[in-house]
Write a structure and sequence with these properties.
With 723 residues, the chain is of the alpha/beta class. Among the domains are: 237 residues, P-loop containing nucleotide triphosphate hydrolases (Rossmann fold); 94 residues, no CATH class; 100 residues, no CATH class. The chain has 32 helices and 14 strands. The strands form 5 sheets. Strands 5-8-11-2-12 form a 5-stranded parallel beta sheet. 43% of the residues are buried.
Length: 723
């Protein structure tokens, strides 16, 4: 197997002295991923938002996955419930991560990101000649064999043989420089030697069996327990090199002098060093060689029995050692493949291909991603019961927060050539995000679907006729784990958007929510065979979505009627932000000349007036969390933009809507222009033309869609009625 190596070369002794105590040099595959995730840091703004929405103060959003939307809790679950316990010696260290979810939920994207993180980890050391990139510390398993071989050569027997082996082992350990590297006062090292009844010294270590010896050395180097789980017997080629066998006859390499090389992680397209993706295999086409390696057919008859050169360690689990093995739709694989998987997990070993017998040590992160049907089908087979203890299942559901669903839709859209050629009206992505979430929610008899969708997005909601706010936690508990496992996929949404985009090219060149609504109606009629499901989807378009669409567009129209609306919104935001900062620091808002403009803690009445917007309705009790989220969002904007002034009121969706609604309270008289059936004056026409210009220049409509919107407002007498 070709290896992507770097020019860094050491002997084992010099490597131990220079880098043997560095955790990242010999860490386990799971520890490496955890370190890379934590190294990227926490996304404070996303963490604050997620904790407020889910009411869970332990949730953390990670910068390593900042371009993943609406899956914070699933990623946190993987980090907190899988990777962290694995690095602490927990049972998950011997489990595969199984991602279960509907199509388009982000499973493949998550795996792709994990691949990227491994590739960013920097080069890792391995034992030269090892075709599976053995951990350098695995060489300590050869101390016993090397000492016994030399004692045998000296013709010693019985007690003299045992004493000589101990003496030789001590010499090898000393030659490696361990007498000056190990901390013999380390508690874990002492526990090993005390348990064996030997001293905490080189001589005491030499009396240990191989497993205990390696455990004591790892501890004495100050390395974590997770590193110990990444160390095992090296592959046959390394053993042959140390013992001077087969191709190394007369050229045995001393352990202290054994060469250490470095390799970088690469994926399937660049040699598969430490990263390998295995597609599902049908039983008739299954070849175990693709999993564990093959016989070296090109050299048949050239090697004696037992020669490691007679096999190629080029199977998926060989190439994925020290890194990542991805089993795409892995639960569909035949029993022979599943047996290899079970051995790799439970025994940390992968069988050697014929004609050799035995196994090689395996340290790798194994990820399976599949769908719920395949998982249930697999687990119902009685013969597969042992896998239940070796799988950690994580639900990867669709996003149920509209703000996050919107970002996924935008991501899909921006990945197409349409994004640079066809304009999208500013309300379209929100419209489609609400549609997706509404189709993913399970109905709740206590609240309408729109209220539930708004509540899941962090808006403090009250259903009509209810005096108390809707409890998001209660809604989630009543819905159970099934919610989010079905509904409209972002891929389906993208298909409809592209269909509309193709139709409008050269005819307006704009995707509008009206066109999307009409296209969705026809799409569902042509693709849905379940009458009840079709009726539900058409009802969502006709009722829930149309209501919100009109409310959103009416606010755009009203805002466009006011010259300087955005400037007024920005001024209101600046005032609100000053008060929020004063609240968070318990200080007063200062004027430009330094005089206090409010009592310590800011103007509470003004802040509550903004926050109690009907669409968001943040209660007094929830205000502190909401304001903390605003502060986090502002700080995130400052970090991302590298600016400390001019924070826009659009930096946080919720507060943007609150600010705009607050300013619009002053301008609803603009509706007069569209409610009158009399001939308009020149002044009225001028205002409408100015409104159209603002819709284009300030709010993101095209000339064509601005005309369409103003015409819709004119033709519908209730379009600008407060809802």
């Amino acid at each position: 197997m070709e290896t992507n190596t770097t020019s860094n070369k050491f002997s084992f002794k010099t490597w131990l002295a220079a880098k043997g105590k560095l955790v990242q040099e010999t860490e386990s595959s799971k520890s490496r991923l955890l370190r890379l995730v934590e190294q990227a840091g926490e996304n404070v703004a996303a963490t604050t938002r997620t904790r407020r929405i889910y009411g869970n103060d332990s949730l953390v959003s990670y910068n390593a996955f900042k371009n993943f939307y609406g899956v914070d809790q699933w990623v946190y679950s993987i980090v907190n419930s899988y990777l962290t316990p694995a690095t602490m010696g927990g049972e998950t260290d011997k489990q595969a991560l199984v991602l279960i979810g509907p199509p388009g939920a982000g499973k493949s994207d998550f795996v792709t990101r994990v691949k990227q993180l491994y590739r960013q980890s920097g080069p890792i050391p391995f034992l030269k000649h090892s075709r599976i990139h053995d951990n350098p510390l695995s060489l300590f398993y050869m101390v016993q064999f090397a000492a016994e071989q030399q004692a045998d050569a000296e013709g010693l027997l019985d007690e003299a043989f045992t004493d000589r082996v101990i003496e030789l082992k001590a010499q090898i350990l000393t030659d490696c420089g361990l007498d000056g590297l190990l901390d013999f006062d380390n508690a874990s090292l002492k526990a090993v030697v005390n348990g064996a009844g030997v001293s905490a010294s080189i001589d005491g270590l030499a009396r240990l069996e191989s497993d205990s010896l390696v455990t004591a050395i790892v501890a004495g180097l100050g390395l974590p327990r997770s590193t110990r789980s990444a160390v095992g017997n090296p592959e046959p080629m390394v053993q042959a090199a140390v013992l001077g066998q087969y191709g190394f006859k007369g050229k045995a390499i001393k352990i202290a002098d054994y060469p250490i090389e470095y390799m970088r992680f690469t994926d399937d397209y660049s040699g598969s060093n430490g990263i390998v993706d295995v597609a599902e295999v049908q039983p008739l086409n299954f070849d175990i060689g693709e999993w564990i390696g093959t016989e070296n057919i090109g050299q048949l008859g050239q090697f004696t029995e037992g020669d490691p050169r007679s096999i190629n360690l080029n199977g998926a689990f060989n190439k994925g050692n020290r890194g990542l093995v991805i089993l795409t739709e892995g639960l569909k694989n035949p029993p022979e493949a599943q047996r290899v998987l079970l051995e790799a997990l439970q025994g940390r070993r992968v069988k050697l291909p014929s004609p050799l017998s035995g196994s090689v040590f395996f340290d790798g992160l194994i990820i399976l991603h599949s769908n719920e049907g395949e998982y249930d089908k697999f687990m119902k087979v009685r013969e597969n019961e042992p896998y239940g203890d070796r799988f950690l299942r994580v639900w990867f559901k669709y996003p149920l927060e509209m703000s996050q669903a919107r970002r996924v839709i935008e991501k899909f859209w921006n990945g197409s050539d349409f994004a640079g050629r066809v304009h999208v009206d500013p309300d379209v992505f929100d419209y489609l995000a609400r549609l997706e979430v509404l189709t993913r929610l399970l109905p709740d008899q206590s609240v309408p679907l729109n209220v539930k969708a708004d509540a899941y997005d962090g808006r403090e909601q009250r259903a009509r006729g209810m005096g108390t706010k809707v409890s998001v936690q209660d809604l989630r508990e009543r819905a159970g784990v099934r919610e989010g496992l079905a509904g409209q996929s972002p891929r389906e949404t993208n298909k409809v958007m592209q269909l509309v985009a193709a139709n409008v090219m050269g005819r307006g060149d704009t995707v509008t929510s009206a066109l999307v609504r009409d296209a969705l109606r026809e799409w569902y009629k042509g693709t849905q065979t379940d009458e009840k499901r079709l009726e539900f989807l058409l009802g969502v378009l006709r009722n829930e979505l149309d209501e919100v669409r009109k409310r959103t567009l009416s606010q755009y129209v009203l805002a466009s009627m006011v010259e300087g609306f955005q400037d007024e919104a920005q001024r209101t935001w600046d005032k609100y932000l000053d008060n929020v900062v004063a609240w968070s620091t318990n200080q007063s808002v200062k004027s430009a000349t330094g005089y206090s403009k409010s009592s310590p803690g800011g103007d509470e009445q003004f802040m509550r007036e903004i926050e109690s917007d009907p669409d968001w309705g943040v209660t007094s009790a929830e205000a502190p969390k909401f304001r903390a989220e605003i502060v986090a969002a502002v700080n995130q904007w400052i970090r991302d933009s590298n600016k400390v002034k001019g924070v826009p009121y659009t930096c946080h969706t919720a507060v943007q809507k609150c600010i705009e609604r607050f300013v619009l309270k002053k301008v609803r008289t603009g509706a007069r222009l569209f409610s009158s059936t009399s001939a308009r004056s020149n002044e009225d026409l001028a205002k409408i033309n100015a409104a159209k210009a603002r819709l284009v220049e300030k709010y993101g409509f095209s000339d064509w869609s601005a005309d369409q919107l103003l015409r819709e407002a004119e033709e519908n007498s209730d379009f600008l009625v407060e809802r």
